[in-house]
Specification:
Distance between the termini: 18 Å
Number of strands: 13
Oligomer: single chain
Strand order of the largest sheet: 3-4-5-6-9-10
Helix content: 25-40%
Number of helices: 13
Shape: globular
Structural class: alpha/beta
Largest sheet: 6 strands, mixed
Length: 376
């Protein structure tokens, strides 16, 4: 039996997981018409995670008005299972990087407040277990926007209240959590993180600040602010989770959820693989195709394609990865994939290749190339 599994994550700003899977499946059937295929929605704790839960048919979309990362009005959504009173919230929905124009990306100013609004909305609708998928944000505010919406207040050395954002992390000298106790009573949180970075240090939350608009000088300021805020929280009696694996995900949102709400931690990709029954679908497959917008060294920190690879290795099925862009070949090419292909090839620039119609065509061509290579 010729069975192929398609388990693509989203190509950020271009294609959803479902769109990528469908394009890949159709392209493969042009080369290999008699294949049997399964398309599994993938996500790794970033954008599209709630959609993966929706795909199980146990969840439904709930809509909520709030704010985006720049404080602009935002009509967002999250997934809810009314039977289990569980909500799944993508931070990328109301604090996502693609929603911020490149010219306005500034992680010193962007905020996660909109995520807090969605958490409150879910609680008010009766949810008692809140799953937060923290990846894909435009923020490095250590979750202060969320915390502020849930009742926390932050003050400087002079007792002046501070606006929650990355720029003010280094100024926080006092944390007041008195107003949030009643709101959060009996609420359980789970964090689905997309990377394993800790909060602090050169490989911490600051690792992803450049793609969010930070230059080297801003990165230094943000790094100092992150360490300062973590130290202030510890002095205030909260646990020191700054070195916890995954705490730096979502610009420090993961750390905040663990430190202030004792959230459970889980790699998002692993959770989605379990949710979609990956092992049972893939056990008799000939080949698995996976990928995401950019495959590089950070992919190997726990993102979807690498999680697919590790799961496939356990059942002995080869995996081909396709990235819109592929970097860090010295690491990626030796990670264990059968082959790694790049779909965004010349003469296209990255910006041109990210246009949805172009991305569809390039992915289709890359899949055909991968299938033909495998058949040889």
């Amino acid at each position: 039996m010729r069975k192929l599994i398609f388990a693509f994550d989203s190509f950020k700003g271009s294609l959803t997981s479902q769109e990528a899977n469908t394009i890949a499946s159709n392209a493969a059937k042009e080369i290999w018409p008699d294949i049997q295929s399964s398309e599994l929605i993938m996500a790794d704790g970033g954008e599209g995670t709630a959609a993966a839960f929706i795909s199980t048919c146990e969840y439904e979309w709930t809509f909520c008005d709030g704010t985006g990362p720049l404080g602009e009005p935002h009509h967002g959504r999250y997934a809810v299972n009314h039977q289990t009173k569980t909500a799944v919230i993508d931070c990328a929905d109301s604090a996502g990087l693609p929603s911020v124009p490149v010219s306005r990306r500034n992680p010193e100013l962007t905020s996660s407040k909109g995520v807090g609004t969605q958490i409150l909305d879910a609680i008010n609708r009766g949810c008692r277990h809140i799953i937060i998928a923290v990846g894909g944000t435009a923020t490095v505010d250590c979750g202060t926007g969320i915390l502020h919406t849930l009742g926390f207040r932050f003050y400087d050395n002079n007792g002046k209240e501070l606006t929650p954002c990355g720029k003010n992390l280094s100024k926080i000298a006092q944390i007041d959590a008195q107003s949030c106790a009643d709101i959060l009573k009996g609420i359980r949180f789970t964090v689905l993180h997309d990377v394993g970075n800790p909060l602090c240090g050169t490989n911490g939350a600051i690792t992803y600040a450049p793609q969010k608009g930070a230059d080297a000088t801003m990165c230094d300021r943000l790094s100092d602010g992150i360490q300062s805020f973590a130290a202030t929280a510890h002095k205030a009696g909260y646990p020191d989770n700054s070195k916890l694996e995954g705490a730096g995900a979502g610009g420090g949102i993961a750390w905040a959820m663990k430190t202030f709400f004792n959230a459970d931690f889980k790699y998002g990709a692993k959770a989605v693989l379990e949710l979609t029954g990956f092992a049972s679908h893939a056990s008799d497959a000939r080949l698995i195709l996976t990928g995401e917008g950019c495959i590089d060294a950070t992919t190997l920190n726990g993102k979807a394609p690498y999680a697919v690879l590790l799961a496939a290795q356990k059942i002995g099925v080869p995996v081909v990865a396709i990235g819109g862009i592929v970097r860090d070949h010295d690491l990626v090419d030796h990670a264990g994939f059968l082959q790694v292909f790049q779909s965004a090839v010349k003469p296209y620039t990255v910006e041109e290749a990210m246009q949805p119609e172009v991305a569809k065509r390039l992915l289709s061509e890359a899949v055909k190339q991968a299938i033909q290579s495998y058949m040889r």
